[in-house]
Amino acid sequence: MSKIHFLFKAPKECYLAFSGGIDSMVLLHLLLSKKVKVTLLTVDHLTEFSKQEVEFCKATAIKYGLEYLTFVIKTFDKSNSLEAFWSNERNNIFQSMDKPVLTGHHLDDACEWYVMTSMQGCSKLLNYNNKNVYRPMLITDKKAIIEYANYYNLTYLTDPTNSDNDFNLRNKVRNELLGSIKNCFPGISKTVRRLIIKKEKS
């Protein structure tokens, strides 16, 4: 099993942005193994699937004896794309919290973001943190996360919109473009990982 690397040491106490997906479930398992005091934080996006997320969060909190919070996102006001609107609303919620908020973003997410921004004319790296919001698994690839979940037989949810390439640009990049880029440039993940480490530790 591949090792999951945290970019920096985990805090002693935190909120975990918890969707019930494989990334947040693996991060929860890791944090508990490190004796971190975790409060689950779930955002209800007012969709059919988010109802499952809220119930799964509650069940997971009960299973592990954790506290949990649920926030209901504002109704989409069409001021931006749905994805951007949700992202901004989640970030506002996370940054209103009184302790660090950890998310399950990983190296594949960072590669997607790097490719998307490069194609738009300005290459950018995902930041390790945005104020009190942190991405501890940012230099760990998705393969290691999947291996970890399988090794520990973790139960998690799968968002059906992840396979819908018409849902947002990120899905198109992930499902249609990134695989081809990795075939042509197999070192892209190592490059992005190296750039993130250099940036965050400089």
Brief digest:
This protein is an alpha/beta fold.
Describe this structure in words.
This protein has helices spanning about 20-35, 50-65, 80-95, 105-120, 140-150, 170-185, 190-200; strands spanning about 15, 35-45, 65-70, 100, 130, 135. It has a single domain (about 15-200), classed as HUPs (Rossmann fold). With about 200 residues, it is of the alpha/beta class. α1 (about 20-35) packs across α5 (about 140-150), α4 (about 105-120) packs across α6 (about 170-185) and α4 (about 105-120) crosses α7.
- Counting helices, strands and paired strands, the structural category is alpha/beta
The backbone outline, from C-alpha atoms, is: globular
Q: What is the CATH C-level name? A: Alpha Beta
Mean pLDDT reading: 93
Query: Can you tell me the number of structural domains?
Result: 1
Query: Total helix count?
Result: 7
The number of distinct β-strands equals: 6
Radius of gyration: 17 Å
Which spans of ≥5 residues are poorly predicted at pLDDT below 50?
Answer: none
The major sheet is characterized as:
6 strands, mixed
The H/E string reads EHEHEHEHEEHHH
State the share of residues found in helices, binned by percent.
Answer: 40-55%
